[in-house]
Structure formats: C-alpha cells, structure tokens
Amino acid sequence: MALEPDQTSVDSITLFVALLCSCIVIGHLLEKNRWFNESITALAIGLCSGIIILLTTEGKRSHILVFNEELFFIYLLPPIIFNAGFQVKKKQFFRNFAMIILFGAVGTLISFVIVSIGTMQLFKKLDIGFLDIGDYLALGAIFSATDSVCTLLVLNQDETPLLYSIVFGEGVVNDATSIVLFNAIQKFDLSHITSRIFIEFIGNFLYFFITSTLLGVGVGLISAYIIKKLYIGRHSTDREVALMILMAYLSYMMAELFNLSSILTVFFCGIVMSHYTWHNVTESSRITTKHAFATLSFISEIFIFLYVGMDALDIEKWKVVSKSPGTSAGVSSILLGLVLVGRAASVFPLSFISNLFKRSESDKFTLKQQVTIWWAGLMRGSVSVALAYNQFTRSGHTQLRGNSIMITSTITVVLFSTVVFGLMTKPLIRLLLPSKHLCGGVSSGSFDSFPSKLMTDLPLIANGDAEVGGNNIPRPTSLRMLLATPTRTVHYYWRKFDDSVMRPMFGGRGFVPHVPGSPTEPLLH
Question: Locate the Cation/H+ exchanger transmembrane domain: which residues (predicted)?
Fold first, then answer.
C-alpha cells in the first residue's frame, strides 16, 4: 500500500532517530575499546542500515534521507564548530596560534596545489569523462580539508593537549580555508588566470579571514555585555541560556548573510563567549549551557557519520560507476595517494621551518610528533562530502558518469581514511608518544608542569648556588634568566589589557559584582 508523502517522511525520520539512539548505545558499550570511536561506530551502523534498506527495497535505494547541503551547513555544522571553540583550552590554542595559522592556511594551500596538479596530470590517463579546470581545482579544495570532526573524536584534549590544539586548530582554519578556496573557484573565471586575478584572490582570502574573525568576536562581546548588564538570570535562567544559544547561532547566520567564513565566525564566537559570557550567567546556567552545547555537537557529529555510511551504498551513483569499476578504483587510489603526499608536503617542511624559529629544544617538534600530526590530519569527512556534492551533483542526484565517479570516489576516500586511519590513530599515538611523555615533557602548549619545571630548572632563591635535593645547581646570570623567562610577553600584555579594560566592561571570571541573584551569588555545596 502506497504511503502518503508526509507519512513517508515521518517513517524515515523515526527510523533515523532510532539509528542515532543505537549509535549512542553501541558507542557506549565500545567506549573502552581503543580501536573504536563514535565516528567509526556510526559509519558501520550506517553501512549496515544501507545494506538492509537496499535489500528491502529490492535495490532501489540505500538511504532514507537525501543529502541536503542546507541541512549540513545551516543546521549540523554550527553546533560542532561552536562547541569546539567553546570547549577549547584557550591558553594552549593561542600560544600555538601562529603555528596553527601556518599549518591551517599555508599547509592547505600547499595541499591544494599538489592535489589539483596531481589530478590534472594523472586523471588524463583514465577514461573519466569531461572535467574542466574548475573541477580539478575544486578537487584540490575538497581533498585539502582535514576533517575537524574526525580529529575531535580521535584525539583527546586532556591526554594530548599540544597535538589536540594544533591538529584541531589547524582543522578549523583548514576547513575555513578550503571553503573559501572552493567559493573563490566558483566565483572567478579560471579559464585565464592572471596576476590580477591571483592578487584579488589573496585579497579576498585575507578579507574573509579578518572580517569573519571580527564578526565572531563582536557577537560574542555583545552577548557578554547584554547578559552582564541585564542580569537576566535573576528572573529566569531559561532566558539567559536561550540567549546564549541564539546569539551563538546568530553569529553563524550573519556570516552566511554577509558571505563570510561562517566556520571561523562561530568558532571565535565560541571562544569569546566561553571567556566572557559564560562567567556572567548563573551557576546553573553554566552547567546547562556547557552540557547543551556538547550534546548538540555530539548529536550532529553522529548524524553526519551515520548519513555518510548510508550514502556510501547509493545505488543511483554505483549503477553508473559499475560499468567501469577499474576506473573508479584508480580514481580513488590516486586521490588517496595525493592526500597522503599533500599532507606530508605541508606538515614536515612547515614543522622544519617552525623549529628553526624555536630556541628551546623542548619547544621543537620531534619527528614522532610530526608523524602523529601528519597521520591525524589524513582523515577526510563531512566537509569534503558536502563540497563534493555541491560541485558534482544537483539536489543530491547525478547522472553524468564523470560526476558519479567523483562522488563515489570521495565517499570511498572518506570511508577509508576515517575507518583505517581513525582505527590506527589511538594505537599510533600510544606507540609514538607514551603517557609519561604526554604529561608535560612535550609541550610548548602545556602549562600544567610549569611550576615544577620552574623549581628544578630555574633556581631563583639563593644568591649563590642553590641546593635542591642535595645537588648543587649553579644560579644563572640575571641576563640569561631574563632571556630564558621573559617577563613581558604578548600574553602578559593581553592579560593586562583584559583585566583593565575588557573584563570590567564585558564581565568574566572575577569581574561581576556580588548582587543578589547575580552570576556570582555564593552557592552552598
């Protein structure tokens, strides 16, 4: 009996929500398994569900929802990126900010060039169909995007703080750079690339980066000022929680409205709101918002991976590709190889350049750390899939042979990189970076071990030689001590400005007056 369209939609959504619940339950049962994580679990369940749907519909379809770019970019991506900025450890992130920009922007451009040129040269030997220069450059942008969602699920912020801050921070800048590149490719006439077009492209990139960041910071500061001045929590904690969530989403939509990089905007809005706004709300609202943002992000991540697993078996695309399986396998292999080469060409040379500017050996990247960063950034995910659908499909469907090969190859690379590289990342980190090495010895981004290192490495007490543990340690000269531990750093001046100007105006930890019902009202535990 034929179902009405509304009934079909209800059935599809019900089944998808049930699958989301099963992903959470199975992911919990596999939580202690060092090989599996939620992303791989969701992909596996999506693949199994796709097979079952394919069999029950007699090969007509494999998924219950058709891919929609609006659903991805407008509803699923914002909570993931905002929560990443909201939860990120700001000290480690900003201390490594220059390196993050180096890997995220320059590294993406290097990978973009390698993938674009590689596909232009190697695809000509395969019978793919017609692809113009815009398609090749789009492939460069699509496969230059390391998936920050995958990285979040594989790396742990507490276990590997330095690697997390760099790989994930790079992933956010990388995604933003890839999307800006992709949009620029669609805007500009690439049939005749001139120096003028190149200069315009660089100018647009800088404009997008700066204005997107400023917009996110501005919306975050406005939310902090409103909540600090009005003390909304005195009357209703629901209102201040709702205001925080809506202001966060507003930053993303305003960036979309002004054609800016919404990823950068909502990411920096999350950082600012965690630094100012979150400290201005009541204690109950702090707990609520922290868990609400994390929950929305978690559901969105699982939703994306579940859908990608289902769409991997889309019969419409595979029917076209099945006529030339060798060509499809060749394209997927070439793309995967270029991803590996492009990632290596960006990580290792840039790490070498970064090490040249670091005086302390402890701050330099070792080869093992570089290999870990290279490996963790090999995964491709939802952003690559969304951009591929944008370039090679119309409303989620395609009938052209070349476009079908590009879509199926993208999904193949995403599945292979997420499952294989994702499965091996945790054991690889444990092999290359033992737990004793992760606690503080590596880290240009770790502050936890600083007091103990200061006591052992920088004796300041005695005028002559200090005795620590029975060993005579020579006291360094004042000049040497000043060079080793400068008292006037960028962070010092920022904290001074923050304490004297920003926090009195926008609130934050310790800068909200004790008013009955205010965010700093004492609590009895």
Answer: 21-429
